[in-house]
């Protein structure tokens, strides 16, 4: 019984949570399939869920900004990146090279 409990705990630690899987699905849709409109919808859906972990939400916002920029919507992209700076300063990485004015 103890072994089963330990294996369950290990599996839970290895498997990403649902939000992280949804994020990777959206990134795949964006990068591999080139479906920016679908990826934008997935990122927004993910951001609308209150249970999304902060690092996942920050990455979803970053990816959303990239999609908006690629879609020719730089003003919306800048607004998203400003939100990252405001709401997720701990997740901001200046090495990303994103310049938000």
What does this structure look like?
With 101 residues, the chain is mainly α. The chain has a single domain (18-92), classed as Alpha Horseshoe (Serine Threonine Protein Phosphatase 5, Tetratricopeptide repeat), CATH 1.25.40. Helices cover 69% and strands 0% of the residues. Helix 2 (18-31) runs antiparallel to helix 3, helix 2 (18-31) packs parallel to helix 4 (54-70) and helix 3 (36-47) runs antiparallel to helix 4. The longest helix is centred in the middle third of the chain and has 17 residues, at 54-70. The relative contact order is 0.11.
Offer a few descriptive terms.
101 residues; mainly alpha; Serine Threonine Protein Phosphatase 5, Tetratricopeptide repeat; disordered C terminus
Question: Layout of helices and strands, plus pairs?
Answer:
Layout: H1 2-14, H2 18-31, H3 36-47, H4 54-70, H5 74-87
Instruction: Compute the average pLDDT.
Output: 80
Largest sheet: none
**Percent of residues in β-strands:** under 5%
Euclidean distance between termini CA atoms: 57 Å
Radius of gyration: 16 Å
CATH fold-level topology: Serine Threonine Protein Phosphatase 5, Tetratricopeptide repeat
What is the total domain count? 1
Structural class comes to mainly alpha
| Structure annotation, total helices | 5
Question: What overall form do the CA principal axes indicate?
Answer: globular
């Amino acid at each position: 019984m103890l072994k089963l409990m330990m294996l369950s705990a290990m599996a839970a630690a290895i498997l990403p949570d649902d939000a992280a899987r949804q994020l990777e699905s959206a990134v795949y849709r964006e990068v591999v399939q080139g479906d920016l409109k679908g990826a934008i919808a997935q990122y927004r859906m993910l951001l609308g869920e209150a249970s999304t972990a902060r690092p996942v939400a920050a990455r979803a916002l970053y990816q959303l900004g990239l999609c908006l920029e690629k879609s020719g919507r730089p003003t919306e992209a800048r607004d998203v990146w400003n939100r990252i700076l405001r709401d997720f300063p701990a997740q901001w990485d200046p090495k990303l090279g994103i310049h938000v004015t």
